[in-house]
Structure formats: C-alpha cells, structure tokens
Amino acid sequence: MLQELLQMFGLPYIIAPMEAEAQCAFMNSMELVDGVVTEDCDVFLFGGRNVFKNIFDDRKYVETYYMKVCYHQFDLIK
Question: Which pLDDT tens digit goes with each residue over 36-66?
C-alpha cells in the first residue's frame, strides 16, 4: 500500500476527510504545496491556484494552469 511505502521512507502524508481535490486546493491556497496534480479542473472552484494535468500520461505534455495567469488573460485583474 502507498501509505506504508510513504511511512517507510519517512514522507509525511494526510488523508483527506472528504473530497481529496478540495483538500489539495486548500493546501495550495495556504501555500503548503506548490500545486495540485489532477485530471480535473474543479480544483480552481475549491480555491486552488496552480494545477498540473496529464503528468502521468506519456503521450502528452504536462499542462500547467496558474490562476494568476488566468485572471490576467481574461482581464479579471487590472
């Protein structure tokens, strides 16, 4: 199991009480992590700021989305 492997290497982890993406988005908004690896984009709805998609797909490039850039591209921040 992955949790046992993390424990063996002394790596910290948490178990999300409900929606894992909401937990990851919270940690991203609190700057506890640099971003969220996911295949969805609902992380932004939960308050995430940086999203990395297709990270485990060998056939594609990793897509990166930064909320700050999105705000500027859509002229939401002046």
Answer: 988 887 888 999 999 999 888 888 789 999 9
Q: Give the residues across from 50 on adjacent strands.
A: 66
What residue type is assigned to position 63 of the chain?
E
Q: With contact defined as beta carbons under 8 Å apart, do 40 and 23 qualify?
A: no
Helix (H) or strand (E) holding 54: none
69 DSSP 8-state letter: H
Non-local CB neighbours of 28 within 8 Å, separated by 6+ positions:
34, 35, 36, 43, 47, 48, 49, 50
